[in-house]
# Entry
Amino acid sequence: MVAEIGPSNIEAAFLLEALKKGTRVDGRGIYDYRTLKIACGPTYGLAEVQLGQTRVLARVSCEVTRPFPDRPTEGIVLFNTELSNMAGPGLESSSKSSTQEVAISRMVERVIKQSRAIDSEALCILAGEKVWTIRIDIHFLDHGGNLIDAASIAAIAALRHFRRPDVTIDGEDAIIHDVRERNPVPLSIHHTPICVTFGFFGVDGELLVLDPSLLEEQVQVSSFTITLNAHREICALNKAGGIPLSANQIQRCTQVALAKVDEVNEKIMLAVKATTA
Amino acid sequence: MTGVKVVLPGDIIDTQQPDGDEQAVIRLGPGLVQASDEVTAVTAGILRSNSETSQWWVVGNKRRYVAAEGEPVVGVVAARHGEGYRVDIGSAHDALLPLLAFEGATKRNKPNLAVGTAVYARVVVANSVMDPEIECFNSHTGKSEGYGELAEGFMFKCSLGLARRLIDTKAPVLAALGKGLPFEVAVGVNGRVWVNAGTVQSTILVANAIRNSEYLDAKQCRQMVKELLEKQ
Amino acid sequence: MGRPDKREPGQIRALHCALGQLNRADGSAQFSAGNTSALCGVYGPVDVKVYDEKLDRALVEVKFRPDIGVSATKDRWVESAVRSTFEREVLAHLHPRTLVQINIQLREGDGSVDATVINATTLALVDAGIPLKSMIAAASCVVLADDTTAVDPTQEEVDAARSTHTFAFSSSSSTRPQSGPVYVDSRGDFTMDEYNRCHDLCAMAAERVLAFMRTVVEGKVTKEALISTA
# Structure
């Protein structure tokens, strides 16, 4: 299946003209997120995020495995993202989108794993013998732009919502309790990194928007993702290619992102609470 | 309207008119096929019929366009070939737009369209075995009749059902907008709408009003347009 | 011995459906029976690779993705079940040289996955306006160790079952009962009598699913019709 061709010249020209006047074609202000909806459950570890017309489903699951020999006391976190045709026509086959897919997967994986969001030592059951492997599957359902932010929100919501079976240690034996026998327990999470993405437009990237839509992504000359947690710490920055940006713009983005991350974190907490209380 | 009849794929249709002639030839339109001696629906929608012409068809909503002769479409130039342009009209295959299918075009003087240019055109060849062909003029009169390059303004997508409702000049959203501000609109039945209202703000307003009207009835449309105009 | 969730042997779980949620797909449906839930997105008729092109009909392609992990051999099996069921139902000759692509994402699997996937696919194809011979509804049934049968089993019941059976029926087989199921998948040890019992239970369950599908589609079509005539 052939990928859809990009936007027409009039769409691109109109979008730029509108941005120069400080408006966006979907009626948003330049620092507005699209409507964010987070739904968790019914199963533990299932979260669906809707960001405007973008939809992402995250599923967290666990199993008991042997630890890596060089890290006998740490659990394992596995990550799987796949950009399929489900999210948009031709996403699976074309070579252009496979680089996009790799970029998105790497970014989300880096944000969750390398920022040590999950306390991996708490996943140890018996050192060198048994640990929990936590698996995060991210399914992109509808590509309406800015998959990175939606995926990071879905992953954090699913991790917060997830419960693993309780374990008791009896000498050298570990007893894993069925969820019907004993209440399952939440994961130990150090912090919740959230991605906030900006798109840049114009000759020098002087125009910027928050949360670019699909059309905006197709027209933008550069993008920049900043990842922050609730403690206002920067966990990751990503600017892969595109035109160079000034340091001032990066600072401006950081200020905007700080405010947005608080809003997003609050929404995640509410969604998780609504289904686990 | 008395009793809307909804049909689903596989439903057998009783095409017998109450006082009709049993031998009358009936004509089947979109959504209906004949299987052995029965007529069955193959898509979901409202069953419609015209007792004078003995035509039966199903009205449903879709998002993927299948080209049909005579219909106006909004396309985007995807490539240029020796004898014409290849234009994406949202159907399975790109349409061919011959270089000379424009008003006043001659071998020496013909429009030069860049890839990505939007055009308003009419489907002239559409069948299941050939790629569709479109024209930006009426080949009988040689006049453009409103077809051609869409140079300014904005373009967006909508469902094919909404596009067909917009083509109806009585579409409530267009009537309500027309009372508030001047604008131009070109509706393709392939679910693409082009609008231009002069300024950026007005064009965005018109585009959003049309997009919002998908699930609104006439009264709700007027209310929605009124609120949008007041906010401006 | 009763069922873990206190259902009657012939009782299916609560059905839930949402049509046309996806924006990029030409048609979509999310279909759930209890906790088992599948999302299906359909594109078509769209352009097909020259290599795959059929000169006289549309190619029907099915992709199934599990809820956990990457797709494996058992998932190919679901793909082939859906493909073989719908290849004969889609009126592919109406759109030659094109592709009808069916993408299925399992959201959660708690038993009766193949039946739920087939039901989601029917509704997504209808939502996309792809011409179909009829509606297809599927149901699963298990025979448990104590010889009792249970329709629309949960994963717990599937794991405890001696045999599992999935049947799909076409909406036109209610008017032509002799035509029988359009898809059958039976696994495990079972007698002919058990097979027949499961067939009958699934046929009754599929009737209920069909009635539910009709309500869902009628609701959507009527809503749109009322707008256009108001």
Notes: Helices of chain C lie at 73-87, 113-128, 155-160, 192-229.
